[in-house]
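Handout, page 2. Input:
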Amino acid sequence: MLYEKKNLTMSDGNENIVHIWLPEGAVKACVVLSHGMAEHASRYERFASVLTTHGLALYAEDHRGHGETAALAEEKKSGKRGYLADKDGFFRVVDDIHEEVAFVKKNHPGKKIFLFGHSFGSFVSQCFIEKYGAEIDGCVLCGTAGPRNGLVAFAKCVGGLVALFGGKKRVSKFVNALSFGSYNSRIKNPRTLFDWLSRDNAEVDKYIEDEWCGFLCTTGFFCDMFAGLSFIHKKENMAAVPKNLPVLFIDGSGDPVGDYGKTVQNLFEIYRNNGMEDVRLKMYEEARHELLNEINRDEITSDVIEWIAGRV
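Output:
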């Protein structure tokens, strides 16, 4: 496996760090990865090591406010950890992925491109396929969620009030608790606040020990995310996903983000009822949120690769 890192200057001038893992032989297809909230792309190196053995290249940016992109912005005093943008931050990340896809196409002309989105990155990916779905060849939505419009509207209102009185760059423990406070509720005697991520204790500990994971995001980030969720789950936007775009949902029945599979099943059925020709759902019993760091990650990774290979 070959590795390189690029500084990609986006259309608004922001510098995003893109991590690139390439097979040593010919590239059969490319995967663009959109990572989750309060984590970073380097955590997916193990996933990359398997993809590349199957001839798949992996491109993964550190989102604004995350990982090395955030570190660079802090160094230049142009941004901060857990903050996306002064305006329309969620949609700015969607456009970052769009520009990254164009970069991948330039590097690998004629090769098929698959988008893999995890958690917050899966919400970004849902928006991407609604706006730009015709420009890729498939999408994997991992640890995602479907419509919960009432809850999102309430959270959007609360986040907006906190931002109004405290500022978008403020860190609010209240808003964070509102979003994630109940996620360990179905776990008996949890060891840590992050047991909901995985049944693999070693992976949970690695997450906790990583200074670029688990940090509190700004109120502005939450406002951006709630605005994005409100947008992507409007009926007309979900209907805008190209009918011929292959989409694979992978989720764990122990994942609280998708309400333990309920909202994921709902979104899957919405896509199918909208006439999408190749949409599939694979539910992993008792698996939690970070499927690629779960105890059955080898099975899950193999399933993803098999799905991609069937469409290359």
